[in-house]
Design a protein that fits this description.
InterPro entries: AAA+_ATPase, ABC_Ni/Peptide_Import, ABC_transporter-like_ATP-bd, ABC_transporter-like_CS, Oligopep_ABC_C, P-loop_NTPase. The chain is built from 11 helices and 12 strands. By secondary structure, the chain is an alpha/beta fold. The strands form 2 sheets. It has an 8-stranded mixed beta sheet, with helices on both faces. A 4-stranded antiparallel beta sheet has the order 2-1-4-5. Helix 5 packs across helix 7 and helix 7 runs parallel beside helix 8. It is globular and about 70 Å long. Bound molecules: iron/sulfur cluster and magnesium ion (MG). The site of iron/sulfur cluster has 14 residues, from loops.
Length: about 325
């Protein structure tokens, strides 16, 4: 089948006092109907800017999509006018943000906001919209939807607000859902419930999900495929099984090593030494070279291409094969 979302050579830059800085630097990514794809990496790697670019929500200025295409069901979103994007956002493609307080309006009740979203995209009466809003809240596991409908965002817990956000995001049955760190601000139990909710949505309605996260536990739990981002580029891509059992990029290997052993432990046994490089348009060579324990001469000179290592498994590294690590 055709991908429902296909990002091609996306480059998004920010104008700074030091010139044009590429936050997303030539990203290719495909999302097929019914799939959950994880986009992982440390903060600042460009994953959120990738998702904002897809929705054409990059603050501009200083941000700008300077190259590439974003095909949603075959139609490139990059050249579209804001008015056209408004018809697509919330309808064909929706986004769930980390902090629902920033996307919920504090001045309106949950019901008013849900109804507004519904009526923006569908010709339905107020009464119908209200009925649908109540049923959406029930769908996302809110036990007293009739009560919540007349409440304001600040009256709800963080977990409840995230459920409301999801209800709004799925209200018009989007074909693509982008979730940017949707559970990061929540405690572990609520986190699991929210992930279950997204997975159920994906299974039941075939909604394709792009899951932006720094948490490999979330990826293992939720995703079919995963793309690992580093310094604005995808450095590895493959099925979740490939990535976890045979990582081919040293950065991915480092990320996997740094996953806490105990599910409820926040202690990291390992963290990748060093920092994400300061991005600039003059960067050359492999972006990970300054932190890589396998670095070779060529690495600082030439940027490796993303190449296929086994069917559907890609890595951007000069090493032909990454040495396997002994189990820790
Ligand atoms: Fe390390 Fe070189 Fe591979 Fe970059 S290309 S990840 S520096 S081995
Ligand atoms: Mg982010």
């Amino acid at each position: 089948s055709e991908p429902v979302l296909r990002i091609e050579n996306l480059k998004t830059c920010f104008m700074t006092s030091k010139g044009e800085v590429p936050a997303v630097d030539g990203v290719d990514l495909a999302l097929y109907p019914g799939e959950v794809v994880g986009l992982v990496g440390e903060s600042g790697c460009g994953k959120s800017i990738t998702s904002l670019s897809v929705l054409r929500l990059v603050p501009s200025p200083p941000g700008k999509i300077v190259e590439g295409a974003i095909y949603l069901k075959g139609r490139d979103l990059v050249p579209l006018k804001e008015k056209e994007m408004c018809r697509i956002r919330g309808k064909t493609i929706s986004m769930i943000f980390q902090e629902p307080m920033t996307s919920l309006n504090p001045l309106f009740t949950i019901g008013q906001q849900l109804m507004e979203t519904l009526r923006l995209h569908e010709r339905i009466s107020r009464k119908e919209a209200m009925r649908k809003a109540v049923s959406l809240l029930a769908d996302v596991g809110i036990s007293r939807p009739d009560k919540v409908i007349s409440q304001y965002p600040h009256e709800l817990s963080g977990g409840m607000r995230q459920r409301v956000m999801i209800a709004m995001a799925i209200s018009c049955n989007p074909e693509v859902l982008i979730a940017d760190e949707p559970t990061t601000a929540l405690d572990v139990t609520i986190q699991a419930q929210i992930l279950d909710l997204l997975r159920a949505r994906n299974k039941k309605h075939g909604t394709a999900v792009l899951m932006i996260t720094h948490d490999l536990g979330v990826v293992a739990e939720m995703c079919d495929r995963v793309a690992v981002m580093y310094a604005g580029k995808v450095v590895e891509q493959g099925t979740v099984r490939d990535i976890f059992s045979r990582p081919q990029h040293p950065y991915t290997q480092g990320l996997i090593r740094s996953v806490p052993r105990l599910a409820d432990s926040r202690d990291r046994l390992y963290s990748i030494p060093g920092q994400v490089p300061v991005m600039s348009s003059q960067m050359k060579g492999c972006r990970f070279a300054s932190r890589c324990s396998y670095v070779m001469g060529i690495c600082t000179e030439q940027l490796p291409e993303l190449t296929e290592r086994s069917t559907g498994h890609y890595s951007r590294c000069w090493l032909e094969e990454l040495p396997r690590e002994d189990a820790i």
